[in-house]
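Sanity check

After download, print the first record. It should look like this:
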Amino acid sequence: MSDKLLNLAYSKVDNELRIRYLKIACILALIIVPGGTLLDFIVYKPFFWTIFKIRMLNELLLVLIAILTFTCTGHRQIKALGMAWGLIINLSLCWMIFVTEGPDSPYYAGLNLTILGLAVLLPLTVLETSIVCIATLIMYFTVCLLYVQNPFLIISESMLINNMFL
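Expected C-alpha cells:
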C-alpha cells in the first residue's frame, strides 16, 4: 500500500472516530453541565440566575456542535469542532469564575475536568490539545485579572497560582 493510500485511510478512520467521540462528548456535556445548577443554587444563590443563563448559553452552543456532527460541513470541520467543544465549556466556566469569586472561585476545577474529558474522550493531537490548554490558561488568567479592580494588586495571588498549576 502506498503512503498516499495509507494516509488517506488513516484520515478517514481518524475523522470517523472524531465524529463518533464528539457526539458522545456532546451528550455527556449536555447532561453534566446543567447538573451543576444544584451546586450553583446552594453555593452561589445570589448569582444563580446569572450562572444559569451562562449554563444555558453553553448548552445551546453544545447542541449546535452536536447538530453539526451530523452534517457534511461538520464532518469537514471535525477537528475544529472538537477543540471548540472544550473551549466553549471552559469559556463558560471562566465566565462563571468571573461572576463569582475570581481566583478564589471553586469553578476552576471544572476547567481541569473539561481538559481531562477532552483528553480522554476526543482523539485530539498533541498540538490540538496544547492549543486548548494554553487558551484555557489565558482565559483563566485574564478573567482573574479582570475580576480584581486593580490588576497590580491581586487579592489572592496564592489561589491564582495554585489553580493555574492544579
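If your output differs, re-run the checksum step. Summary of this record's structure: The mean pLDDT is 89.
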